[in-house]
Amino acid sequence: MSAVSGLRREIRWPMPVARLVAFLRRELAAFPGRGNVTMRCALGSAIVIVASMTLRVPELALSLIVVFYVTQSNVVLTRMVALSLVIGSTCAIAAAIGLYALTFDYPLLRIVVASAVFFCSVYLMRAVTKFGLMFFLIAIIVIYAQSFVDLTDNAEELVRSCLWVWSAVNYPVVVALIINTILLPAEPELQLRAAMHRQLAAVQARLAVLIGPGSGGTDAAVASVASIALDAGDLQQGVMSLQKLLRFSTMRKRYSESAAAAVLACVTAVSRLYEAAAELPVSAQNYGAAGLAAIRRVRGEVEALDRTIAQGGSLVRPAASAVSTQQDAATIPIPAVAAMSRAIAALADATRTEAPREDTAHTAPATPTAPPALLPPDACSNPRYARFALRTLLSVLICYVFYNAVKWPGIHTIMLTCLIVALPSLGASSRHGLLRVIGATLGSALALFMVAFVIPHLESVTGLLLMSLPVIALGAWISAGSERTSYAGLQLMFTFSLALLEQFSPPSDLTEIRDRLVGILLGVAVATFIQLSVWPEGEADALRAQLSKVLRAIAAVARTHAQALDGAAAAAAGARSAPQPSLAAWAMLADCEATLARVALEPDWREGETARVTLLAQTVLAQGRSIMLASDAFHDEAMFHGARTASSHTALIKACAALQQNLSESLEQYAQQLSGEPPAATTPIALDIRKLAAAGEAGAENTAALFDAAARLDASLAGLPLWSTVERNAALPANAVRG
Q: Which partner from 27, 291, 293, 353 sits 20 to 30 angstroms from 173, CA to CA?
């Protein structure tokens, strides 16, 4: 057995295969809520299959994809999507029938009018993203309805087909709404409490390792801490999930002013505790009995807060013991634990003072905010919207002419594909097209397997469900994942259903499966070629501008830390800086990471340029996260020393504030250089830590940890890469010589 194990250790997968396996393992891993979404999709699909087969409602594959669209992560999104589907499908069917009535006997006029409706819908889909789903439905149904006319000259049959499409779209909406709101509801407030509970559980686990037998600093303790360590990715995902769920909770439930402020304060406190947990030391051995007592006290406060959140208690009135943590923070010998104590004290202060704020609100009424505009300011002036609509219309018309010219109606999916993969950027379109091809290929392969080996043995609807539901559940599991792979699950289910469940009898013609797959492949090829040839829209330049905004947001966090330290020298205490700049920075980091994933997939004729931009952007993002964490850690250390430094030794805190201000200015300068045309961003100069060292030698004690945090901050800033066209041009001859 040992020889076999040793042989397995020696075998290594090729690097691309290993990366693919790691990617799939990460994308298919379970996370809270994924099983619930899968169960709701499977249950809704089972009801729709039975109802459509029993009542002989056509377009079953379309009904199933509606169930997937309506089944969202929470009730708020479910209702928004359901309303959009009902309104969009009704308007689309009305437009298609009206188009038949006016232009049925005039084919050229019909195509022209349909193209005009399609162009306007795609234009509004791009310009008015809030109602993008409605305009997408209008565009796809109106242009797809033209393929019906090529198959029959019976006007009554065409109208009936359109009305059946409306029924096939809207009755699954009702089924999915009932399941998502009554049988298996996913309330955003409950999801928010569950997310906060998971983060507080991680905080308690980190504190428990320090309190337990591992606090002696053994290798086992280090291993225990490493197993539950929090990195920048965990912090970013945790902060963003709480903010999204908070927004959905306020959309779902109308909170009073005091309750809304209390929930916001609680979410902020949990985020602060989660961030501080990442800064906890590996061992509490050097802090003695006082350190262990402080950890136990703070852990008790965290546990009380967690119990209140998990049990659904009111967040307006915190635990009474939390009020005293502000005074206890000055006696805690561990900076990260002191930061946790200040966060709990800030929560207690915020929730305790909500009632007076509500009373004074009547004396000074706030100015009502204007409702958001229906159309963006550049809806009629931005040429990109018209170019996007023209590109999409051109690719659809090319496919329409092609499949009519070759008299191959089975590949009508070629038209739908051109609209489905039409996204604003090349990277997003390439990813969507790739996922559509992968999902369609897997769905077709599963359909072929079922036709050959399973369908001959089916005798009832029960067997049909046993055959279909596992594949539908697999598609739902993938669809409930991240944006990087979710569309593949939707396409897998739709292609499988289109091949096997579209008719009320077992399929016997395998050419339909082949034709639909060929149509998808050709549609992706045509759409990609048109997007590359006609006004291509890449995001590489937009990525640099976005990175500049991220760095400016991180600079704002450092500037806020500097202002907090400037006022903390005399008070020697105080709450941590306001969370808004930090939350905005994390949100921008997440958005920029999504943009970078799309840029990495953009086809580019310039060899190596996309890889170069991707590598530089990845470095900037990684260093941005590192700077965020290092700035927070340095701030906690500075606040820790500010609570213990005598008034005659406030020069140390002033030097800490100056260092944060210096960091902010360096980031602002780098961001300004990065956003220039052409970019000429140079690595920032080192931070001036000499003043900090001089102030530390003037009288402050035990400042080694503070200096280490400053050095870590300086190293993170120095990791920002050189980004310029000069560097690229200088590298080309060297690369050519090596080649």
A: 27
Q: 């965020």: which residue's tokens?
A: 628
What's the rounded Cα separation, in Å, for the pair 115 and 395?
12
Arithmetic mean of pLDDT over the chain? 79
Question: How far is it, in rounded angstroms, from Cα 500 to Cα 487?
Answer: 20
Query: Are 537 and 433 in contact, with CB atoms under 8 Å apart?
Result: no
d(CA 373, CA 150): 41
Instruction: Identify which has the larger pLDDT, 318 or 162.
Output: 162
Domain ranges of the chain: 32-185+384-533, 188-357, 540-738
| DSSP 8-state assignment for residue 228 | T
Query: Strand, helix or coil at 305?
Result: helix
The tokens describing 136, both together, are 């997408």
- Report long-range pairs for 598-601 (Cβ below 8 Å, ≥24 apart): 598/425, 598/427, 598/428, 598/431, 598/539, 599/427, 599/538, 599/539, 599/540, 599/543, 600/427, 601/426, 601/427, 601/430, 601/431, 601/434
Q: Cα(514)–Cα(145) distance, rounded to whole angstroms?
A: 22
| Spatial distance between the Cα atoms of 690 and 657, rounded to a whole number of angstroms | 14
* Alpha-carbon gap, residue 351 to 261, rounded angstroms: 8
Confidence of residue 217 (pLDDT cuts 50, 70, 90): very low
Rounded distance between C-alpha atoms, residue 160 and residue 148, angstroms: 11
Task: With beta carbons less than 8 A apart as the criterion, state whether 652 and 698 touch.
Answer: yes
Distance, in Å, from the CA atom of 253 to the CA atom of 649, rounded to the nearest integer, reads 50
Q: CA distances (Å), 330 to each of 333, 561, 566, 642, 673, in order?
A: 8, 19, 18, 9, 42
Residue type, 547: L
d(CA 72, CA 505): 31
> pTM for the complete prediction?
0.81
Are the C-beta atoms of residues 317 and 274 closer than 8 Å to each other? no
Whether residue 678 has a cis bond before it, omega within 30° of 0:
yes
**If 0-12 CB within 10 Å is exposed, 13-18 middle and 19+ buried, where does residue 519 land?**
buried
Closest by Cα among 549, 545, 551, 548 to 664: 551
Residues 561 and 579: their CA atoms lie apart, in Å, by: 11
